[in-house]
Every structure is written in structure tokens, then in C-alpha cells.
Design brief:
Blueprint: E1 4-5, H1 7-11, E2 18-21, H2 31-37, E3 44-45, H3 48-51, H4 68-77, E4 86-89, H5 97-107, E5 112-115, H6 118-124, H7 153-158, E6 165-168, H8 172-175, E7 193-194, E8 201-202, E9 206-207, H9 210-219, E10 228-231, H10 237-247, E11 253-254, H11 258-264
Parallel strand pairs: 1-5, 2-3, 2-4, 4-5, 6-7, 6-10, 10-11
Antiparallel strand pairs: 8-9
Helix pairs in contact: 5-10
Length: 274
């Protein structure tokens, strides 16, 4: 699976791809303002909470997966057609853009890549920015779903006891239960392994090399043939970890409900500590 595209390569292909700008961060709502102030030429803004997620609920989590039909309608609004090549990006090392990458792959598209290093890499490579909104002609893409593996809460919880590895992509202090800024309870799923998404990145917000990522995940217990699941707070940064695993040649399933779903169910056990 080809996950990344370098800014230098994208500079030669901008007329051949659909560019999606997914600037979002937990606790912030100015992604669209940032986009309007300056974005890759032709890039379309994607609003993560409303276009890359369904309505939140305690039963499904803070960012449940949208239906295939809803995602297809959004993708057509973004100008994606059958056969389109898509590049997603943000200004935070792909931590938000990876959600769009994962969803479009899940929807059935095969040529979707993350701009490695995002906006900063683009400008460092000599790419220009433009201001204002971009409204493309509607596309005609047909999405089918099922293109990427997913886990339910029960399936994720069962992985550690059955020889699999369940990775927790949140910050270490959230995993350990020292802080919990947004979800009902602090801690982690019993048996899960702490694997903060930010450690997939190197200086400049670029992904580490495939060799470095392979080494990292091996140290966390992921070997060839290991069944791997990933969760985070609400299934957003977990998509980034799935992308990093894919760069290392490892297929991993995403648990969309993640900790926001688990911690809202008081019957579910919670572990704390390292």
C-alpha cells in the first residue's frame, strides 16, 4: 500500500490530483480560517467533525464513521470522480489528514496519499499558497465501503488475549490515566500497548522511514503475521497509526469508537499505569 507522497513529487503532479486540506485539531475550530488564509492551489477544505464523522454519541464515540452514502456525497462535493488520484494534507504532520486517507481507502478508493510533512513541506519545496475558497465541479465517484478493516469494541478488547496486539495511539499520559481532557474516564483498555502517534513522526512533521517504523512497531510486539488493532480517543489519530503501520508493511484494523466509546460504558474495565 502506497501511503505517502513527497512535496517534490506533488509539485510535478498538482494538475493530476484532487487536493484535500484537512486542517483540524482537538479543541480548535479555526481550521477553515487557516485554510482561507492560505492553502495549496486548488485544494478543497474538508471539515473533519462534519464531513469525516457521523454524529457523536456515548454508544458510538465522539467521531463515529459516516455511512458510505454520506462519505460518497462528501467525496463528490470535493470533486472526486472515478479514477481520481487524491492527496490529503494538513499542517500537523498528517494527524488529521490521515482520517481522510483512511476513510477514502475504507470507502474503496485505492489511490489516496498523505502529503508527507504537510503544508510546511510544500512551502519548503517551493510550493506556493493561494487564499480564498475553492469550490470544484462535483465528482461522480462511487464508494462501496469495506476497503479497510475495522474492529468493534469487543473485538479490540479480545486481541491481547488471543495473540494479537492492541495499540493505543494517544499520548502516554492519557494512556497511563494521569490526565483525561475530554473523555469520561482516564486510563486504557486492559492489555493495550502504549504507542503514541506522535512517535511516528520526525523533525518537520514527516513520517519516519519505513525501516524506522518497522523497528518501532517490532519493539511494541508487532511482528510479521501479528493481528494488529489500533485505537485512540475517537478514531482520528488512530488512522495516522494505521498509515504508519502500512508504511512499515503491516496491515492494521481501526477501532472507530476508540476510548471515547469504551470509557462511556461504565461496565467496561479500565487499566491505568504504564
Amino acid at each position: 500500500m502506497t501511503v505517502l507522497i513527497a512535496a517534490e513529487e506533488l509539485l510535478d503532479r498538482t494538475g493530476d490530483v484532487v487536493l484535500l486540506d484537512v486542517r483540524w485539531a482537538l479543541g480548535r475550530s479555526d481550521g477553515r480560517d487557516q485554510y482561507l488564509a492560505g492553502h495549496l492551489p486548488g485544494a478543497v477544505y474538508v471539515d473533519l467533525p462534519t464531513e469525516l464523522a457521523a454524529d457523536a454519541s456515548p454508544e458510538a464515540g465522539r467521531h463515529p464513521l459516516p455511512s458510505v452514502q454520506t462519505l460518497q456525497s462528501a467525496a463528490r462535493r470535493w470533486g472526486i470522480s472515478t479514477g481520481s488520484r487524491v492527496v490529503v494534507h494538513d499542517a500537523t504532520g498528517g494527524l488529521a489528514a490521515a482520517r481522510a486517507w483512511w476513510l477514502l481507502r475504507w470507502g474503496g478508493l485505492t489511490d489516496v496519499r498523505i502529503l508527507d510533512g504537510g503544508l510546511a513541506a510544500w512551502t519548503a519545496a517551493g510550493g506556493e499558497l493561494e487564499a480564498g475558497d475553492v469550490v470544484p465541479d462535483p465528482g461522480d465517484v462511487v464508494l462501496t465501503g469495506g476497503g479497510m478493516p475495522v474492529l468493534t469494541a469487543d473485538e479490540a478488547a479480545a486481541l491481547p488475549a488471543t495473540g494479537g496486539v492492541l495499540l493505543d495511539a494517544r499520548a502516554g499520559e492519557r494512556y497511563r490515566g494521569e490526565v483525561e481532557p475530554v473523555d469520561p474516564r482516564a486510563g486504557h483498555v486492559p492489555g493495550a500497548v502504549s504507542a503514541p502517534t506522535t512517535e511516528n513522526l520526525v523533525t518537520g512533521g514527516r513520517f519516519a522511514t519505513a525501516a524506522a517504523l518497522t523497528e518501532r512497531f517490532a519493539a511494541l510486539g508487532v511482528r510479521p503475521g501479528t493481528t494488529v488493532g489500533v485505537y485512540c480517543g475517537s478514531g482520528v489519530t488512530a488512522a495516522h497509526e494505521v498509515a504508519a503501520l502500512a508504511e512499515a508493511g503491516i496491515e492494521a484494523a481501526l477501532w472507530p469508537g476508540s476510548w471515547s466509546q469504551w470509557s462511556a460504558d461504565l461496565d467496561r474495565p479500565v487499566a491505568t499505569g504504564p
